[in-house]
Write a structure and sequence with these properties.
Arc Repressor Mutant, subunit A, mainly alpha
């Protein structure tokens, strides 16, 4: 029996989402330069032509993944936390708990963290000002929480953006472990928070 037009659209939507999800993890492991469509298609288990049906080039696919990362909930969560009326220490505890739970439970989250960091580093190579890392919303909102905590006396002294970099740098390390290591011990909240809390 032929598929209905609605079912055909569902199949297309599911395939596009699958390509995006699997590609994000592949790019996170291999970087943009280290990714070939032929290898990516083998990784996903589909033909190269299927990828090109949905995305005209590797660059377009990567741009779509970048948009997907920019819309991810962790940025929204940090932005929301930064604006709440509560002590910074409590905000950091909430953020840390959420980040660690997602790292344990969700390969896509680990891939998103790793790929976002790859993209920031690639941008830094193209930008001689070395300020690209700090253009990330994730870093800026984390820095706002850190600055609040410094005023309250719960966060160590230092440049808030650099401290945000330390915090997310540790998250990045464990995202890589999640993606690459067969066996590893996940960092605990106390150890992650040690990068910024007194």
């Amino acid at each position: 029996m032929p598929k209905s037009p609605e079912r055909c659209e569902e199949i297309k939507t599911e395939m596009r989402a699958r390509i995006l999800r699997e590609s994000m993890l592949y790019f996170a492991r291999n970087g943009f330069a280290g990714t070939k469509i032929s290898d990516l298609s083998k990784h996903i288990g589909i033909g190269q032509g299927t990828i090109y049906t949905y995305f005209e080039s590797k660059e377009v696919l990567f741009q779509e993944i970048h948009k997907m990362i920019d819309r991810e909930k962790d940025i929204k969560q940090v932005k929301l936390l930064a604006g709440l009326l509560m002590p910074a220490r409590q905000k950091i505890h909430i953020l840390t708990k959420s980040v660690l739970e997602q790292l344990v439970e969700d390969d896509s989250f680990a891939g998103m963290i790793a790929l976002n960091t790859h993209m920031l580093m690639e941008q830094e190579e193209d930008d001689s000002s070395n300020s690209t890392t700090y253009q990330s919303e994730l870093y800026r909102y984390t820095a706002k929480i850190i600055e609040q905590g410094q005023k309250e006396g719960s966060v160590v002294s230092g440049t808030p953006l650099k401290l945000a970099d330390y915090y997310w740098g540790v998250v990045y390390l464990y995202a890589l472990k999640k993606l690459f290591a067969k066996k590893y011990e996940m960092i605990c909240a106390e150890d992650l928070e040690r990068t910024i809390l007194k």
